[in-house]
Design a protein that fits this description.
The chain has two domains: 87 residues, no CATH class; 40 residues. The protein has a three-stranded antiparallel sheet with strand order 1-3-2, covered by helices on one side. Helix content is 48%, strand content 11%. The termini are far apart. The protein is mainly alpha-helical and 142 residues long. It has four helices and three strands, in the order αβαβαβα. The longest helix has 33 residues. It is elongated, with a radius of gyration of 26 Å.
Length: 142
């Protein structure tokens, strides 16, 4: 079991305090919950801690949802009679087909290539002018 302070510390470190980009929740069955979330979200950043109690887990979840504006709810049907886990994961939709992320990545690559092409052309033009205008080493700035 992780002490409440350890869970708070872990969440702060992992999220780099960019809380709104993360989902938090509590569950008795983290494997099943991860599988459920994995149907609609990318759960590759999933991290979980075993809480000391249901009330500790609820307090942690409530704090990060209400005070730090993490995504999540403070309801649910988690049982105090079973082990309780606090989990977080970064909110990212699963990439399906031609998603926004794929389009954004393609645009980013296109921008990089076009800038690279621009700088190569400018460099070649400068080199061409340098050579054809007869600038020699002894003609450098004085």
């Amino acid at each position: 079991m992780a002490r409440t302070g350890v869970i708070f510390f872990g969440i702060n470190i992992i999220t780099a305090e960019s809380y709104t980009a993360w989902q938090i929740g509590i569950t008795n069955d983290p494997d099943e919950r991860k599988k459920e979330w994995g149907q609609t979200k990318d759960v590759s950043t999933w991290t979980q801690w075993e809480a000391n109690s249901l009330s500790d887990a609820q307090a942690i979840e409530s704090y990060f949802v209400n005070e730090k504006k993490m995504k999540g709810g403070t309801g649910g049907s988690t049982s105090a009679d079973r082990t309780v886990y606090v989990y977080i994961f970064q909110i990212r939709s699963r990439a399906i087909g031609n998603s926004r992320r794929t389009k954004r990545d393609a645009l980013t690559i296109a921008r990089i290539v076009s800038k690279w092409f621009f700088y190569v052309v400018i460099g070649l033009a400068v080199a061409y002018l340098w050579v054809h205008l007869g600038v020699h080493h002894d003609d450098t700035l004085r």
